[in-house]
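Late entry, NDP complex.
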Amino acid sequence: MDLSNRTILITGATDGIGKVLAIKFSKLGSNIILLGRDSLKLDKVYDQLEQSFPSQKHLILEADLSQLNNESAHEIFNAIAGEFTSLDGIIHNAAILGTMTTLEDYELSRWDEVLNVNLRAPFLLTKTLKTMLESSMLPRIIFTSSRVANVGRAFWGAYSVSKFGLKGLAEIFANELETTSPIKVFNFDPGATQTKMRASARPAENPNSLKTPSDLVDCYLWFFSEESSDSKQNYYEYADLSQKVKAR
Ligand code: NDP
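Prediction complete; structure with ligand written out below:
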């Protein structure tokens, strides 16, 4: 798949799934906007992109999504608009797990941080950057879901609540944009994947029993294909989408 001249913003691009997507998408020709909170980690990923693919343009956006507000969201808009003429996609990938505990014991400050990063920031970034996406030929917004967005399970606390909320947010954006905008909105549950977040949630699990972030790349690429333009479905899970992608 050729992604030349497409510019894609990936939040949480310094680790796990986001980092692998940044590297793979840039290998296919896209300009990558790396958003993360850790400048050293951002620089390392940026260097990896620059060394291998010098003809493309990449941008670092250092931002702590737990602190995002209207002003910093507009700074992000201006930084992107200063470098690129359009934006072709946003992958809302950044998230934090928060604390695995009962709701009764959940610290309010931690609750707010999880909701801010996982739900409030994707809302504000989408709302702020939407106009930039509208000049793209195949504009896409991908939200990242989880199994605990569908069923409330003990101890998953704010993380689960944020993913329930994100499912609603993705559906509302999809419905609102369906008839008024070329932007396609998807919500994707990548399923259990070998990353530091999964290791924190399931410390006793053998990571080698899980798929790696690289196994997800074809699913994410499908969202950016012309084929997905005809999809009436907004929510996808890895198990189903990977079969569909393999069967093509
Ligand atoms: P990781 O913890 O490996 O990576 C999360 C990324 O988000 C990191 O780059 C991290 O930055 C960044 N991030 C966290 N907090 C902030 C913040 N305040 N501001 C900016 N960036 C931040 O997670 P995964 O790769 O596993 O998860 C990616 C997505 O997939 C998440 O939305 C997650 O909910 C979802 N998911 C993952 C599953 C799995 O099994 N791994 C299963 C289902 C869904 P830093 O490097 O600084 O920590």
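The CA atoms of residues 45 and 137 lie 27 Å apart. Will revisit in the morning.
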